[in-house]
Input
Amino acid sequence: MTRFASAFAALAAAATLTACGPRYQTVTFELRSQPPVPVRLTGEEIEIPAGIAVSVHVTIESSARIEFTNKDALALNSQDRDILLSEATPGAHNFVLVGVAAGETCLAVEVEYEEEECIPVRVVAAE
Output
């Protein structure tokens, strides 16, 4: 019975620790530059013309009552840098996204060193 009680206590403690932190839900993008043509930046999809660069601040949204802060690690990694470049810039959660060439890829969102999702990206030909 003692082993069972110890195992249950360990399981309960692990469940409690897991529930204590923020839980990734999505990201939101705030434009820091004004591109000359429209771009679409959401947690569900990104559309940017080739040849356009946008500066953004990214906020990590939590599905728990505990929110993420700018101290939480965030990386945005393009799966195909020949289509989209994503580079961190000075300041927490600031990035530049550059449409390199027309095509499709995805932008991997890594929070606290774990990949959470990959946002579909479409880079369209410049008009």
